[in-house]
Specification:
The structure is a single chain. By secondary structure, this protein is mainly alpha-helical. The protein is built from 13 helices and three strands; from the N terminus they run αααααααβββαααααα. The protein has a three-stranded antiparallel β-sheet with strand order 1-2-3, with no helix packed on it. Strand 2 and strand 3 form a beta hairpin. The chain is globular, with a radius of gyration of 24 Å. The model has no long low-confidence stretch (mean pLDDT 89).
Length: 305
Amino acid sequence: MLLQFAIKDFLEDREFQNLSPKTISTYRNTLTQFHQFCVEKLEIVDTKDITHSTIKSFLMYCQRERKNNPTSINHKLRNIRSLCNYLQNELEVYNDKTNPCKKIKFLKEEIKIEVYTNEQIKQMLNYYRRIKYRDKSFFSYRDTAIIITLLGTGIRLGELCNLRWQDVSFKNNAISIFGKKRQTSSIPMAKKLEKELYEYKIFCEKCFENLPEYVFTTKNGKQLSTNAIKCIFKHLKLIMGFQVNAHRFRHSFAHNCLLNGMDIFTLQKMLRHNKLAMTEKYLSLWGVALKSQNEKFNPLNGIDL
C-alpha cells in the first residue's frame, strides 16, 4: 500500500472517530513530514518498505536537522505509532513482527515545571487592578478574570476560550469544562473565583446590549481565540519581565494544590488527566509537598524517643 494513501486513509478514519480538528491537524503535520522524508531522503513510497530503521532515521533527522527537543520527538513517534498500529489492526498491512514501530523506545524527557511565585501573581493582578480602578475598561476586567480563572481552576487555554456563561453555575459553585477528547466535566469554583466572575458578568451585562455567549470575548462580544489570548500574554510578558502563558498557570495551580495538602488522586480529577501517570509528572513539586506532609503526619511525632 502506498504511504500517501495509507496516511490519507488513516486521517479519514481519525475524522470518522470524531477526533478534534486540532488532534487531526497534529497527525497530519507529523505524517506529512514523515512522508516527505521517506520520499525525498530514502526514496520510499510503499508502506512495506518502511522499517524500524526508516522511522529511527526520520526521528534522528528531526533531532539533528530540525532541532526538535525530546518532547517533540516523542510526540512525532506517538503519531507515527498510531499510523502503524492502524495499518496493523485495521488494514492488516503489518503484523506483530513486521510493525516497524514496535521496538522503538521513547526518549527520556527532561521534566522542567515552571510556576509563578506569589509575588509574580500579585504583580500581574495589581497591574490590571490599577487599570480597572482607574479606567474601568473592559479589557482590564476581562484580563483580570482570565488570570484568576486560570489560577483558580488549572484549565487549559482551549478550555478557557470555549467557556460559556451557561457553563458557570453560581448556584452550585461549579464550572462545566468541555475538555480533551470532547468530554465534559464539572470542577468546583472557589469563593474568590466566584466573586471575580460574578463581578465580571455584571460588568459585561452593562457593557453589552446582550450578554455574550462566551465568557471571554473581544470588545465586540465575539469569542476570544487562543491566539488572541497568547497575544494578551505576550504583551503582559513585556510589562512584567517574565514568561506568561496558560500552561504555566496550570502548573502553578497544581503546585499550590500540592503545597496546600491536596492528594495526587484529587489533583488528577481537578486537572482531568485520564491517567495518574500524567499527574505524577508533577513529582518535582510533589516532593516539596510531601516533605511538609511528612513533617505533619509522621508517626514518629507521637512517640517519645
